[in-house]
Design goal:
Blueprint lengths: L1 E6 L7 H12 L6 E4 L7 H5 L2 E16 L9 H5 L5 E4 L4 E4 L9 H5 L5 E16 L2 E8 L6 H18 L4 E5 L6 H7 L4 E7 L2 H16 L4 E6 L5 H13 L3 E5 L5 H7 L12 H17 L13
Parallel strand pairs: 1-8, 1-9, 2-7, 2-8, 9-10, 10-11
Antiparallel strand pairs: 3-6, 4-5, 6-7
Helix pairs in contact: 1-10, 5-6
Length: about 300
Amino acid sequence: MVEIVVLSGKGGSGKTSITAALARAWSKTERILLCDYDVDAPDLHIILKPEVQETHEFVSGTVAEFSEDDCIDCGQCLEFCKFDAISYDEDEGLYHVDSTACEGCTVCSALCPMDAFKNVPRHCGRYFSSDTRFGPFIHAQLTPGSENSGRLITVLKELARDKARAEKIDVILSDGTPGIGCPVISSLSNATLVCAVVEATASGIADFERLAELCKHFRLPVAAIINKADLHPEEAEHARTVLENVGATVLGDIPFTPIFTAAMSRGEALGETPTELDSTFEDFARQLKTLAATSTRGRRTIPIKEK
């Protein structure tokens, strides 16, 4: 079983559209399993239109819960809480817990003389196992303001691998998260290959270099697609040089074109309505399959040059 994670080092690079196009191309020849690791702001489901088969609650940590029946109005809890999550409403004569500010430290429940506080499981979102026209799909939605996106991604990865083994699927194609923070690090866990989407701009190249450093640390091979390459040919050539210098495999480039937007407006992945880029993405899928089959994690690292 191999997992290819599509990353970009930044948001807005076309990562999700390219993931959907690769899924369409790949699913023509074999079954794949899809994941969306952007649990804070997922959008791959907009194109895939999944039919949800299973829904699970994501519980992480605890949150304080107040019982007014047990309260003697001593006010000590206001001093106990160092996160200002407990407040007193003089008009109502009641104490309130701000669940967003509460860190679940359990000080209030431990020190309240009347046990008016208790800590209950914190529901931080939901995750789903679904079916799509391209194959099974594992995805999630973190509740706005909730934390532990990295842990939720780990849950998704475990669920995806279990489902792939059960259904004898050899390829997991995952849409990763923007940037290089904790969610991206969780996305890279047990991955086989990273497919980087690199914009042919100064910021796109700089963000890729940060991503390359991260992949080097985890000893992960990288393939790359240069997006919007025709907008600035000189920057596109510079991007290609940077990619080659760090040891990434350049799959090819794609132009700036309205056909992506047209496909999204129809609720389709690129290629479901024939376009001039269909063969390009089929070639990308073939190259990724070959690279994933021949690359072992740790065998090939990215030799970032010292500055």
